[in-house]
Amino acid sequence: MEDRRVVVVTGGSRGIGRAIALKFAEENAHIIIFHYDPDESASSETLNLLKEKGIEAKSFKVDVSDKKAVDSVFEKIFSEYKRVDVLINNAGITKDKLLIRMDENDWDIVLNVNLKGVYNCTHAVLRNMIKQRRGWIVNIASIVGQIGNAGQANYAASKAGIMGFTKSVAKEVAGRGIMVNAVAPGFIDTEMTAKLPDKVKEEFLKQIPIGRLGDPEEVAEVVYWLCSEGASYVTGQVIHVNGGMYM
Ligand code: NAP
Fold first, then answer.
1. Average pLDDT per consecutive 10 residues, the chain (247 residues; last block may be shorter)
2. Given ligand 1 and candidates 32, 65, 90, which is best to mutate, with the most ligand atoms within 8 Å of its CB?
3. How many Å apart are CA 241 and CA 188, to the nearest integer?
4. Domains (range + CATH), the chain
5. Catalytic-labelled residue, pool 36, 81, 155, 224
6. I need a surface site. Which of 23, 151, 179, 202 has the fewest CB within 10 A?
7. Is the CB of residue 39 below 6 angstroms from any atom belonging to ligand 1?
8. CB-CB contact of 33 with 46 (8 Å)
9. How far is the CA of 2 from the centre of ligand 1 (A)?
């Protein structure tokens, strides 16, 4: 088998996903990112940053919540690379509202992208990983899935769902050499948190013992470790990366 791992990062165009893709570039992996914004500037920038690191990465515009579209992209990936070694389910969105104002669409879209998207991509790669008898899957959850947050019932439910999904799939495939873990970031400095009002940010900061937001790279380090030999006895875990905000 060729040494270079084949790594798929969903939501790899920006934020935490971009930092994860750049981290995998350090081992000279084949990197494939998924994104969904029709404005391709963020994904092009990620591809350029990867190129600077010597990686000719690929980008697919695909909605992770669309099972047919996901399956068809993975068919292309398998026909070119024959396998996927690492899947990072990172794509995620928010549609924050108090539940009383949250309509069905706000609920469905967040659950479909954040949770069904994880099912769609994992389901698409698992058979191939089982055949190879190796693989690493890391799902990006959130502190909010653990402790809840007013205004984020849809998001919290999706992220708590990811935690249950991770543990169940980890039990199903541990015997096949496939490691399945989740990383639950706290409050990380990306476009997702940039759109929060200053008042909300100040309140969050008061709750972080380390006293600052996290950097996407600090999440990427933990994700990468989970996909390394150093984590060879770690599966079914939710690793919190939150500056002490939840202990
Ligand atoms: P971000 O900067 O908003 O990036 C989100 C990424 O997901 C983008 O690459 C985006 O692609 C992609 N995406 C969105 N909808 C998609 C869809 N339907 N199909 C495919 N890709 C889609 O967010 P982030 O802060 O880096 O967050 C990354 C992950 O970490 C998310 O799962 C988020 O819930 C989780 N998280 C973040 C924080 C935080 O504080 N930032 C904390 C806890 C957990 P486009 O660029 O094409 O739009």
1. 90 98 98 96 98 97 98 98 98 97 98 99 98 98 97 98 99 98 97 87 93 98 98 98 98
2. 90
3. 9
4. 6-239 (3.40.50.720)
5. 155
6. 202
7. no
8. yes
9. 31
